[in-house]
TrEMBL record:
Residues 25-159 form the Hemerythrin-like domain. The lineage of its organism: Bacteria, Bacillati, Bacillota, Bacilli, Bacillales. Signal peptide: none annotated. It holds the Pfam family Hemerythrin. InterPro entries: Hemerythrin-like. This is Hemerythrin-like domain-containing protein.
Length: 178
């Protein structure tokens, strides 16, 4: 299998090919999500120079809806698969799983607020209002950028070490149904 991501950040020269298949899959799903969120971020930042902020936000909204669908599917695989299995080893109340779930929630809340606000915006949208709406996407971008880095450098390597071969097999099966 050709791996586009190369080495695991923070893990020296450890190639991701040393990860089990479900962790490689989650890791590789970050790449297209990163491209989509980068595009959203750049478009959100362009709101300040837009001559038609309402139309600009409506176009951004369509991109956000597409991103949200992809992110939701990825998040479900993590939450209902990996996070659930890791909870048996490290608990859920404090530590990495609690932080990962909080960051999912925070990113989703910012996306939800953007979509809600842009569905209600008036024809007389001010530049300041448009910038406020776009800020939700900037915040979601920042949260998810940090979140993905933590997963790749901390959670995935931890899971590779802690999960048994049987758990990795079950995780692969579970991810196929999510």
């Amino acid at each position: 299998m050709e791996l586009c991501c190369g080495k695991v950040p923070g893990q020296g020269n450890r190639p991701i090919s040393q990860f089990c298949e479900p962790l490689v899959r989650l890791y590789q799903e970050h790449s297209p999500l990163n491209e989509m969120k980068q595009d959203l971020y750049e478009r959100a930042k362009q709101t300040s120079s837009s001559t038609d902020p309402r139309n600009h936000l409506l176009q951004l909204r369509e991109k956000v809806l597409s991103f949200q669908r992809a992110l939701d599917q990825h998040s479900r695989r993590e939450e209902d698969g990996l996070f659930e299995m890791m909870t048996a080893h490290i608990g859920k109340e404090l530590g990495p799983i609690a932080m990962m779930e909080y960051e999912h929630s925070l990113a989703n809340e910012n996306i939800r607020l953007f979509l809600e606000q842009t569905s209600l915006m008036s024809d007389k949208l001010t530049k300041e209002e448009a910038l406020g709406f776009a800020q939700y996407i900037v915040t979601a971008y920042e949260v998810l950028t940090s979140h993905f880095m933590k997963e790749e450098s901390v959670l995935f390597p931890m899971a590779e070490q802690m999960l048994s071969d049987e758990e990795k097999r079950l995780l692969a099966e579970r991810m196929e149904t999510i």
